[in-house]
Prior knowledge:
Helices cover 38% and strands 13% of the residues.
Amino acid sequence: MMKAFFMRTGFFFTxxxxxxxxxxxxxxxxxxxGAANPLGxxxxxxxxxxxxxxxxxxxCHGIDGELGDRAPALKGxxxxxxxxxxxxxxxxxxxxxxxxMPASPLPENDVWKIVAYIRSMRASAFDAPLEGDPEKGRAxxxxxxxxxxxxxxxxxxxxxxxxxxxxxxxxxxxxxxxALTKPRPHIxxxxxxxxxxxxxxxxxxxxxxxxxxxxxxxxxxxxxxxxFTAEEIxxxxxxxxSLMPTDWEQRLTPEQFKNLLAFLxxxxxxxxxxxxxxxxxxxx
Length: 284
Ligand code: HEC
Ligand code: HEC
């Protein structure tokens, strides 16, 4: 239904704007028609777009949107020359004149799928909310998985991990999935686990928040902030692995995992404050 509607609108705009120009495909002509991706930005569309992209585009662009041998990376956070759906569509369908970027012979629908895929690599998880039941995901977060022991959302929860109140607008969906399934190559600053052995014979386990020549600030596992001077410390044992578990795909059922991601992708406290969105908007 929606699809048919958009296709017709797209057609209407194309006729309206392009016919006077009498050119088969004018890159700049369609610019202001406001056409968004008629297929939407849903997970199945993105998944098909990814396959098409990795099949047709990686002889120049890199696999999964990374930098390629002969063309720029299409994912990432830099400002892109082409950022609207229709500009991307146009670049792929018609190529970019004067550059190596060729016009693609793929059918229209496949091009839109690739557009969705490129957008998903750039958009925050909140912009392309993941499928699944966020309400059930909420229960996974607080109850079944116990994420709240270490993470805070909207003022509730633990302090050992980063606050996740706005993680949906700060991260892309693939980044969220990765956070739950792959150890990071480096422990981010402020989250390095360690044990401090004091001259007084105490052992405190926690995470190093700040470390200078003369002092060390640590968040202990029981959530207290401790400050040690160099004289008080006898020995420090640094942990090699982050406290963040990354085997959630094994620990949770596929259903729980999916619902948890759906819940995380909708955490957008910062966005709510900026734009005055209400709960119903977030539950969409
Ligand atoms: C023969 C090599 C080649 C192939 C194949 C190719 N590209 Fe490109 N593409 C390029 C080059 C080179 C550029 C940079 C053009 C420029 O300098 O503006 C580019 C630019 C782009 C841009 C614009 C990037 C921006 O930020 O504006 C998009 C989008 C794009 N390509 C998508 C694709 C897709 C999707 C496919 C597969 C259907 C594809 N390309 C296949 C070489 C290629
Ligand atoms: C034992 C404490 C602990 C538990 C339990 C835990 N985490 Fe974490 N988490 C951390 C720490 C510490 C970090 C920061 C260091 C890192 O990324 O490796 C982190 C990082 C993250 C990040 C990355 C945040 C960002 O801004 O990139 C996400 C997302 C996340 N956790 C989600 C979860 C979810 C969802 C659960 C439950 C399924 C969970 N965590 C359970 C401690 C924990």
